[in-house]
Amino acid sequence: MYDITMRQRALALLGQGLTISEVSRRTGASRGAIREWRLRTEQKRDLYAGPYRECPRCTELPSAPEPRDSYAYLLGLYLGDGCISPVGDRSKMVWALRIACADAWPGLIEQCAAAVGAVRPGNKVRIIQRIGCVEVNSHSKHWPCLFPQHGPGKKHERKIELHPWQQEIVNGFAEDFVRGLLHSDGCRFVNRVRRPLKNEDRWYEYPRYNFTNVSLDIQRLFTDALDRLGVEWTQMNARNISVAKKGAVARLDEFVGPKY
Length: 260
Fold this sequence. Notes:
single chain; alpha+beta; Endonuclease I-creI; 2 domains; 4-stranded antiparallel β-sheet; 10 helices; 41% helix
């Protein structure tokens, strides 16, 4: 028995054009299970993963996107390295969600594509090679509904704040939100500090996390989530937030860890 996360990831990889055998090798799921998931989706027998799930924000009684952990992670990625732009005939109001992922982190690319496929399972997820990075791309009429922070201009030049329904998700899934922000605009590395002594210099090494974003609003969303998780942080300068204390780094390592 495979959990829903495994199924979502497998369907997202199939949507990228991978064969059943390739998806099986990457996910560890059997080819028979993956074949059945694809068949259920094609025949519309699986409403959760099927191609016609309605936008939860466009109904008479709006609700939060599901699954919420995937949305919280994707929200972090979008606020860091994502954008929404119109595509094709503007009269049809179709939008592209584009999230840039560095070529150096294939695992991050897979996680991003899986999150997009989980939040909007009816929309194809594309992996487009750009210069120096990969663009995870998906078209939908409803991306602005799901990410109301969309607007003209750069994010740091306009107000960025969460709607109440988004804040509720972030409060409940702060770990996933922080992981998305760090996977987009953060890093984990080993810091080296030189201490001059009488006869020689001594070097100390310790791991730390850095988050870099020009937008003060996005910085605040990041640090508010850290506060909720009990993770100590320091404002290094106008653009950088540092997490360096041993206990705080260990706490982030529980659910973030290095990119791969």
